[in-house]
User: Fold this.
Amino acid sequence: MKWPADYHMHTPLCRHAIGAPTEYAAQALAVGLTEIGFSDHSPMPRDDFDEWRMYLRNLDEYVASVEAARRDHPQLTIKLALEVDYLPGQEGWIRELAAMHPWDYFIGSVHYVSDSWDIDNPYKLSEWKKRDAYEVWSVYFERLTQAAECGLFEIIGHADLPKKFGIYPTRDCTGLFATFLDAVAKHDVAMELNTAGLRKDCREIYPSPQIVQMAAARKIPITLGSDAHAPGEVGLNFAEALSLARSAGYQQACRFTRRRRELVAF
Ligand code: ZN
Ligand code: FE
Ligand code: FE
Ligand code: ZN
Assistant:
C-alpha cells in the first residue's frame, strides 16, 4: 500500500516547532512515506503580529532549509509550501507571498476569529468562557468559507479547528459545514484530513467524520497532514486518517506541484 503524502509539517522558524526539515524528511522515509510537504506558518507583513509564525526576514532561510532536506534525501519527494492564515483583508498580502518563491501549494487555515483571538491558542483558553460556542464556530466557519472562496489556497487546513479543546456548541452546526463545503466544492479547493486533532483534547482527526462524509458527497478532493511540529510526528496516525477517508468513499489524495493538482490513488 502506498501512503498519501504528508502535506502539513512545520519547522523551528515558526518558533514553536523543533527539528530541522532534513530530520523530518529522514523520519518520513523511516515510516515509509514517499512524499512530504513543508507548510510552516507564513509570515505576516508585521513581525509583531503574534509569536507563533516565522519572521518575514526568515522566509529565504525557510526555503533554503527545505532545499537542503531535498539534497539530503533525493529518494523522497519534498514539496515547498506554507500554511497561510486567512484573515479578511489579507488577500493582497497573500498574493505578495505567493509571488516570492516557487510554492507547490498554500494551505489556507483560519486560526483567528478576530484580529486578536487565535482560538487554538492555549494561553487564550479563557476567551471561550466569554463567548457562546456556536457564535465562535459561526464566525470561524464564515471566515473558512471566505478562505475557500478567495482563490488563494489549494487546500483548506484543519477544517473544524474550534473543537480543539473539546468545546462544542449545543446547537447543530450542519448548516455551517454545508455552506463552507459548498464553497470548497464550487471553488475547486481540496480539504485536508489533519491527524493533529488526535493529539488534542478533542481526540479526533480534523475534520470530523460528519464533515468528511459531507465533503465526499460533494466530491471534494483531500490531502493528509500530520501537522508535525517535531520529526517524530511525521506521518503520525495516517492509518486512522486513511480509514476515515476510505469509510467516506475516498480512494485518492491530491499531489500538488507548482500549484497544479493531480490525484494519486492510495
Ligand atoms: Zn503550529
Ligand atoms: Fe494551523
Ligand atoms: Fe500547522
Ligand atoms: Zn497547522
